[in-house]
C-alpha cells in the first residue's frame, strides 16, 4: 500500500489537480463563454514545461544550495514577468482571459502546479537530492509578478475620499 501511495503522490496527484482546476474553470459560466479551452491547455502545457526546466539545475548537487537556488528564483521571476505580459497581450485575448483576473489566475495556477510537478520529477531524477519536494516550491515565485500587478490594480480602485479621512 505504501508503494501505491508514493506512486500516486509522485506521478498522479498533480495531473489530477490540474484536471479538477480545468473542470472548475470550464463550469464557471462567465469564463465558459469566452475561454478557449484548446488554447488554455496549450498555454498551460508550454508554461508548465518552461517552469519545469530549472529542475535540471539539480545536477549541481551540493552547489545547488549556493547558486542553483538564485538561478531558479531568477528564472521563475522572469518567466512570471513574461506570463504577465502574455496574459495582458494578444495571447490573453486568444485565451479569452485578457480582462478576467480570475481566469488569468486559474491558468497561471494550473501552469504553476504542472511546472512544480515537472520540476520535482526532474530534480529527483537527475540530481538524486532528497529535497526535491522543497525545491519545487520555488515555482511559486512565478506568481509574484501577477499578484503584484493584481494588487496594484485593486489598490488603484480604492476611491480617494477614503484617504481624506486620514
From TrEMBL:
Top-level taxon of the source organism: Bacteria
Transmembrane segments: 6-28, 40-58, 64-85, 105-123, 129-147
Signal peptide: none
Keyword set, alphabetical order: Membrane, Transmembrane, Transmembrane helix
InterPro entries: TssN (IPR035177)
Keyword Transmembrane helix: yes
Keyword Magnesium tagged: no
Protein's UniProt name: Uncharacterized protein
Organism: Mogibacterium diversum
